[in-house]
Amino acid sequence: MGSRFATAARLAAAAVFVFAARLPAFAGEPVPLPVLQRLLLVDAARAGSRIVAVGDRSYILTSDDQGASWRFANEPRNGPLLTAVAFADAQTGFAVGHDAVILRTADGGNSWKPVYSAPQEERPLMDVLVVDKDLAIAVGAYGEYVESSDGGNSWAARKIVADDRHFNGIAALGDRLVIAGEAGTILASDDRGKSWKPLESPYKGSFFGVIPTGDGGLVIFGLRGRIFRSSDRGNTWTPVDNSSTAALMGGARLADGTLVLAGNAGTVLVSRDQGRSFVPVMSGTTRSLANAVMGAADKLVIVGEGGAREVPLPMRRSTP
To answer: What 3-state DSSP class applies to 222?
Structure first.
């Protein structure tokens, strides 16, 4: 199928057996390391100084010590797979996932409540973008597009393109919004999502995410380890060398401008030159990885199969 939806569904199916053991049932309980290592986590984001991670069965975890330890949030247990999480500020955030579910928190991820779902449509949401205090957009499989103009209190779905290709990622580059998806799909909006236009794609395979760089560029990534960079808001693209063919499932830009990509076979790639080149980082695993956030000094927190793990960041090269 060539989508994050298909990959996440396969990972969730493969991970079901690990829940045979009883998991802690109460919000605020610490997550023992053996339990953490059994979890499938698909995304993570910063909420101020806190890290919030989401994944299978609607589990949401929080860490207040840069990923060294985790606690369960108060969220609807045994719900659908959650695929993405994003925060407007340190308190307000959204988690999205299968059944087109959208959860909202107003207390930094401690508690969550459903604000939207459409399980009958069978269109999982794959990513969510908080544009500003009013506008938020979630995108997903089969062209699913759901938006809120009131800070995430209410949401409405609409169709923005004629076909049903999967939308796997969405990002903002200044006043331009960009969607990346199945079969080389790249869409752009310059009017806060009111209208969308296709951009010429450098690749016919699927893209799983798009990240703005610190210098006004864009990096897009996906199947077979393909990475492309644009310096003109997505109008043209240049391939970025990557010797790995492992699919790249998620990516993030850290506060210092470092770009991180994570993917299958334990792949972690880091760029310190605005996405013009990436170097591999040893993750200590060959399991599938989904995304990364900044942890303690010079460390990444990587989520995926096996929960969350710390990975050292390579040292910056000193300039003469």
So the answer is: strand
What phi and psi, each to the nearest 5 degrees, are found at residue 36? -55, -40
Tell me what percent of the residues of the chain surpass a pLDDT of 70: 89
The pTM score is: 0.92
The closest of 256, 283, 278 to 268, measured between CA atoms, is 283
As given in the structure block, the two tokens for residue 43 are: 């995304």
Please list the residues that pair with 289 across neighbouring strands: 304
Residue pair 15/40 in contact by the 8 Å Cβ criterion: yes
CA atoms of 183 and 138, how far apart (whole Å): 19
* Counts of helices then strands in the chain (DSSP H, E): 2, 27
Which helix (H) or strand (E) covers residue 268, if one does? Answer: strand 268-271
Tell me: pLDDT of 5 over 70. no
Which residue type sits at 274?
A: Q
Q: Could you tell me the CA-to-CA distances from 185 to 47, 143, 220 in Å, in that order?
A: 30, 11, 11
Q: Would the pLDDT of 168 be above 90?
A: yes
Contact yes or no for 275/240 (Cβ under 8 A): yes
**C-alpha to C-alpha distance for 234 and 231, rounded to whole angstroms:** 7
Query: Could you give the CA distance from residue 80 to residue 99 in angstroms, rounded to a whole number?
Result: 7
SS3 247: coil
Q: Are 60 and 69 spatial neighbours (Cβ–Cβ below 8 Å)?
A: no
**Cα–chain center distance at 257:** 17
DSSP single-letter state for residue 14: H
The pLDDT, as a whole number, for residue 216 is 93
**At 71, phi and psi to the nearest 5?**
-130, 155
Place of tokens 């009013």: 134
* 260 contacts 252 by C-beta, under 8 angstroms: yes
Q: Give residue 314's pLDDT band: very low, low, confident or very high (50, 70, 90).
A: confident
